[in-house]
Every structure is written in C-alpha cells, then in structure tokens.
Amino acid sequence: MPIVTIKITDEGVTTQQKNQLIKGATELLEKVLNKNPAHTFVLIEEISTDNWGVSGESVTVRRERQKKS
After folding, report:
1. Cα–Cα distance between 14 and 21 in angstroms, integer?
2. CB within 10 Å: which end of the chain, N or C, has fewer?
3. Domains in the chain: how many in total?
C-alpha cells in the first residue's frame, strides 16, 4: 500500500490541479511499480510560504524581493 506525500506552497493551487497530481502520482506508481490504484494513497500538504525556506530565508521574503525587482 504506497503512500505518496506531495508538499507544495499554498499559492493558489486549484482543486483541478490537485486532482491532476493525485491521478498522475497514482498512475506512475501503477506503471512503474505495478501498484494497485485502489490501494494507493496520495496526500497533498499545502504549506504557507512563511513556513517554507530556501537559502536561509522564507519563500515569502524571497517573493516580496522579486516583486520589487
């Protein structure tokens, strides 16, 4: 029973896009590992950009700086 966790920032991802991620991950596990889709679980975690950091700063700070450039 595979469990896939996809972590993304909470920046306007639509329900349709999430459904595409769930479907795509499920199909990939079926194709590559021959896993039964009925037993495949996909979790999507949306994380605030304040709680996602890269290169020593939050994504929120990086995005604000990019807007000013």
Report:
1. 11
2. C
3. 1
User: Which long-range CB contacts under 8 A does 46-51 form with residues at least 24 apart?
Assistant: 46/8, 46/9, 46/10, 46/13, 47/7, 47/8, 47/9, 47/10, 48/9, 48/10, 49/9, 49/10, 49/11
Tokens of 30: 């079926």
The β-bridge partners of 4 are 42
**pTM recorded for the entire structure:** 0.85
Q: Residue 9 and residue 37: Cα distance in Å, rounded?
A: 26
pLDDT per position as a tens digit, 44-65? 999 999 999 999 999 999 999 9
CATH number assigned to the domain comprising residue 45: 3.30.429.10
Distance between CA 30 and CA 8 in Å, rounded?
A: 23
What's the domain range around 59?
3-68
